[in-house]
# Entry
Amino acid sequence: MNATIRSCFALFAFSLLAIATASPAAEGGVTVPPFERVQLPNGAVLLLMERHDVPLIAFNAAMRGGALADPAPQSGMASLLAGLLEKGAGKRDAAAFADALAAVGGVISTDSEAERITVEGSFLARDQALMIEVLADMLQRPRLDRDQFSSLQARYIEFMRAAKDSDLESLTPIYGRAALFRDHPYGRSARGSEATLAAITHEDLQKYYSQQFGADRLILTVVGDFQTSRMKQALGGAFKGWHKAAATLPDVAPAVAVDSRRVVLIDAPDSVQSYFWAGNVGVARNFSSRAALDVVSTLFGGRFTSMLNSELRIRTGLTYGVRSRFERLTQPGAWQMSSFTRTEKTIEAIDLAFTVLDRLHQNGIDAAMLVSGKTYVQGQYPLALETADEWAGALADLEFYNLGRGYIDGYGAALDAVSASDASRMIQEHFPTSDHLTLVVIGKASAIRDGLRKYGPLTDVKLSDTTF
# Structure
């Protein structure tokens, strides 16, 4: 067994061990372990949490901006940049970069979201010097090679085309947000579209990086087996010379909720199924009554035995699954419910989903359901805060959304305190009724168009269109 394979097995074993040996949750919830926050003179924020249970270090680097900073005709710019960060940095070209990680079993991945670009990963504690070097190179000295750009751009466009052939479910929320938010920045696809990706030039991307990346945009969280004083010194040295971003951080105003119903139909003439999404504007990440909202959201569409899934899958067999959730960003994101069904069952499935939503408003949540929902959420929440990488992501979120420790420390008590009146208030104030929704359906238009007209004004879109 060579060194690379041994390192990979070791990293996997340590990850499993982290789950088994994580500190138990505090009674009634989870308490944030001690960590240190450091802000460098250039604005970079470091969040450092020591955990010596396993010889592993996880990190999460969040760069504020993300898809919000994309020029509207070139959405997907941040996504392309995120992908290119892995294709060589500093003294290493793409091959040398990959080899350096493989040699020690290090893991790094990048992603672009609506409001940030993230770089996250994990290394064995003994390789922390390499981890810092590679991460500092990725953020401050990415190669942004022209050939790598062209290759990645072509691949992303092909991924989009392939999804239209074989993964329509993944496109449903993209079309949904575009229809709901329209010209608002939250309606912009973080992945871009065929047309907007193709409109990006190598020079555009280089300019975008120079304007949108800088120390004042960085939140770097490191969790694991290290000494805080040494890690603080090493990171401070690695990032102290980085300039601030040249451009102003994008700002976004709250979107206006829809007060009627309308339909967008995307024609997929060869599809034997219909994929539907219905939504309205929901709540922001800092929503003060999130415990009560989480309980109701879980009961309605967030678990296997939810109201939605019980009706559309378990009782009627109309679908293999249906879910609803709130997407919580700096400003209110989308409340959405989505599913799929056979073409001939499209109207029946949508009717039933709307009926269940209206039933929630009419009947509310009874006492037994409330207890069940609180118990379920209370049991699931600690499971998402056990490993080093989970804490790295959680601390990054606290800083990014300016939430404070109480967002986690007080969650268990807030769940315990959720009352029937709290649940009723969440339903009435934050769950839309069926006549206040944007409905998006991808399917065989000739078979379902007439049936969909009863839901409201209908707009036809072709799946072959190169934008959303």
